[in-house]
Predict the structure.
Amino acid sequence: MPQLNENFLRLEKNYLFINIAKKIAAFKEAHPEADIIRMGIGDVTLPIAPVVIEAMKKGCDEMGVKETFKGYEDSGAGYDFLREAVSGYYKSFGADVAPDEIRINDGAKSDCGNIVDIFGDDNTILVTDPAYPVYVDSNLMSGRKIIYADSNEENGFAAMPDESVHADIIYLCSPNNPTGSVYTRTQLKEWIAYAKKNNAIIIYDSAYEAFITDPDVPRSIFCIEGAKECCIEMCSLSKTAGFTGMRCGYTVIPEALKVIASDGTEVSVAQIWGRRQGSKFNGVSYPVQCAAAAVFTPEGLKQVHENIAYYQENARIISDTMTKLGVKFTGGVNSPYIWFKCPNDMKSWDFFDLMLEKIAVVGTPGAGFGKNGEGWFRLTSFGDRQRTIEAMERFEKLVSDMK
C-alpha cells in the first residue's frame, strides 16, 4: 500500500481563503439580498494594458504560421527577448542582474513553493511572522524545522535578525504580504550580513516592488551590495501588470551564489535549480512571454503604471479612512495592502464576522497569516474605485458606532 507523505497532515486542514469562501457562501445563502464588497483576496480588477494584449495576440498569430511557430523553448529558462527585457528593467532601478541569471516562470507562487526541492530537509527555515502561507506550507510539506522572526506592532511589522539564532534559509518579503511594511536599505544590509554570517540563503519575494515610491526602499534586494552571494529573488507580473489570470513571473539566481556539497565540492545553486526545472517544468507559453516582454517597453511601463496609480489611489482612500478613525495601520504607501489593528482589541476572525454581518465587506483576518497576525486585519486596494469608497463609508460608520 502506498505511504503518504504525512507531513501534509501537519498543514491546516483548510487553507485561509477556503475558510473565507465558506463564510461568504453561508452569508450569501442567509442574506441573498446583501451587496457584498470584497477586499480580501489580493486579485487585480483592472484589464491588462492594451500594448500587452496586442503583443500576446501577435504571439498567438505567430504560432499559426509555420515560419514563426514555436515548440519547446530550448533553454527552459525563458526566451532571450524576455530575459533581456527583465534584465533591463532591473538595471533601470539600480540592480545589476544579467539575463542569464533570470529564469521565467508561471508566477512567483510556483517558484516560492518549488525552490525548496533543491534544499535538504534538515535545513532550518526562518520565516517572518505574519507571512504569506506558501513560505510555511511548502516547508512543512517537506518536514523541515521552521523558526519565526516576530514582526509586530513594536517593530513596524518589519522583523530584524536575531544574532543568537541560526537559520539556513530565510524568507523575506518587501513590500510585505500581508502587512504592507517595507525594508529600508539599512535593514536589508543587516539581513544580508546575518545571512553571510550564518552561510544562509535569503529567498526574497519582491512581488509588489512596482508599488514602491520611497527612494530609501529598494525595488530589489540586488540593489544592496553583497546580495548576489546569498540571495535568490522572486518576482511576478501578477500585480505589476495584472497577470493573475495569465501567469508569468521570474526568479533571479545569481551566478555568484554557491553552496558546498557534503563531499566538499562547490555547487552552483543556479545550475541545480535549472536541472530541477528541466525535469519538472515545461516553461511559459510563447504568447504569454511575448505579452510579458511588452510590459517592459516604454509604452508598456507607462500603461501598467496607470493601473498601479489607480490602485495606489484606492490605498490612499483606505489609509485616509484609518487615519480619520484613529485606527493603527501599516501599508497603504509602497504597498497595495492596508494592515490595521482590529477595533476594541477584537480577534481577527471575530472582526471578520462582524464586518460581514454588519456592513457586508470582506477582508482577510490577520490570524490566518500567523500568530502575530492575531488582532490585525488586511484590506486590499485592488478593487473598483467607487466600491472602495463605498466600503470605506460603511467601515467608517461601523467603527464609529463601536466607539
About this structure: The chain is about 40% helix and 15% strand.
